[in-house]
Design goal:
The structure is a single chain. Helix content is about 40%, strand content about 20%. By secondary structure, the protein is of the alpha/beta class. The strands form 3 sheets. It has an 8-stranded parallel barrel, surrounded by 7 helices. It has a 5-stranded mixed beta sheet with strand order 11-12-13-14-15. A two-stranded antiparallel ribbon has the order 1-2. A hairpin with a 2-residue loop joins strand 1 (about 10) and strand 2. Helix 7 crosses helix 8 and helix 11 (about 275-285) packs parallel to helix 13 (about 340-345). The protein binds iron/sulfur cluster. Iron/sulfur cluster (SF4) binds near residues 264, 267, 297 and 299.
């Protein structure tokens, strides 16, 4: 696993790299200077399972707001800076646990050095974030177009620039909205660097298409042993990003804890509102920390048998259903009580 060999980096009280668990990041979409709304959104993200949060810092009010936001939240805070090196320095002063910059758009070497010096003083990591949309012109001319090799060359050059300033508390990201290019970029850079990699598909799209692109792209990268922290980018509620990220990690066995819901696709034997029930169960189980599987099956004939590996489950009948545990039927209950009875089983779960 390449992720076992990356450098260990501390972001607030969290650690990435060196084979530590892959952490989930998300980004607020409130105005950062609107402290109440930003904190409220971060709290929802924390509850959803977000490990590290990033806020955009487009102006000085946003940088100043970080100080108050940080006091009110429990997860590390990353400041996202473009173009203005003074915003990066202020964000560090106001308590950011990490900053994300693209040195290529910060400007002169002097400005990059001023940011690096500020980060060095507090020993906070810098994420060097290269995006396919902001590649330097000489690289575009050299490669003729945006491509994985150009992204990697850009990132390596920017990392070298910071290393030459005697700083190596770094994380790298290489984001492209093209899934294949993104995969290729991470596979290339993982063999060229010791720094932890922040993985994501940028501008992935709406909740539907972005979830699929992210699951495929991030999933392939993680499954090849690459990636220390992930961010799913969706045009939607950031809590959906966190939910998606958790499912990607769980599907790859990179994260334990929390209930996994399995449900059948329904068929001509289904006689209850299984789709509605499965969605309700998925929401209901989120507050339970148990590392178990719950099955929501459409019929009693095949349900308990097909879902034998589930720890707990329901199987629909005609206006009623069965509650079962490890394939063994516990009792029959009316359809409208299935959710409640399942909840009771979870409330009394011995773990
Ligand atoms: Fe059909 Fe029953 Fe299988 Fe669901 S569990 S797909 S309802 S046979």
């Amino acid at each position: 696993m390449l992720r076992d060999k990356t450098k260990t980096i501390h972001i607030g009280d969290r650690v990435i790299g060196g084979g530590n668990p892959v952490l989930i990041q998300s980004m607020t979409n409130t105005r950062t200077e609107d402290i109440d709304s930003t904190v409220a959104q971060i709290k929802r993200l924390e509850a959803a399972g977000c490990d590290i949060i990033r806020c955009a810092v487009p102006n000085m009010q946003a940088a100043e707001a970080l100080r108050e936001i940080k006091k009110q939240i429990n997860i590390p805070l990353v400041a996202d800076i473009h173009f203005d090196y003074e915003l990066a320095i202020k964000s560090i002063e106001y308590g950011a646990d990490k900053i994300r910059i693209n040195p290529g758009n910060i400007g002169s070497k002097f400005r990059v050095k001023a940011v690096v010096d500020a980060a060095k003083e507090r020993n906070i990591p810098i994420r060097v974030g290269v995006n396919s949309g902001s590649l330097e012109r000489p690289l575009l001319e050299k490669y003729g177009n945006v491509c994985a090799r150009a992204l990697v060359e850009s990132a390596i050059a920017q990392v070298r620039l910071i290393e030459d300033m005697d700083y190596d508390n770094l994380v790298i990201s290489l984001k492209a909205s093209d899934v294949q290019m993104c995969i290729e970029s991470y596979e290339l850079i993982a063999r060229k660097t010791k720094y932890p990699l922040h993985v994501g598909i940028t501008e992935a799209g709406t909740v539907f298409s972005g979830t699929i692109k992210s699951a495929v792209g991030i999933g392939v990268i993680l499954n090849s042993g690459i990636g220390d922290t992930i961010r799913v980018s969706l045009t939607g509620d950031p809590c959906e990003e966190v939910k998606t990220a958790k499912e990607i990690l769980r599907a790859l066995d990179l994260r334990k804890g929390g209930i996994e819901v399995i449900s059948c696709p329904t068929c001509g034997r289904t006689n209850i509102d299984l789709i509605g029930l499965a969605n309700q169960v998925e929401t209901m189980v989120q507050s339970y920390p148990y590392d178990i599987k719950v099955a929501v099956m459409g019929c009693a004939v095949n349900g308990p048998g097909e879902a034998r590996e589930a720890d707990l489950g329901v199987a629909g009948g005609k206006g009623e259903g069965l509650i079962f545990r490890k394939g063994e039927i516990l009792r029959k209950v009316p359809e409208e009580r299935l959710l409640e009875e399942l909840k009771q089983e979870l409330d009394n779960w011995e773990h």
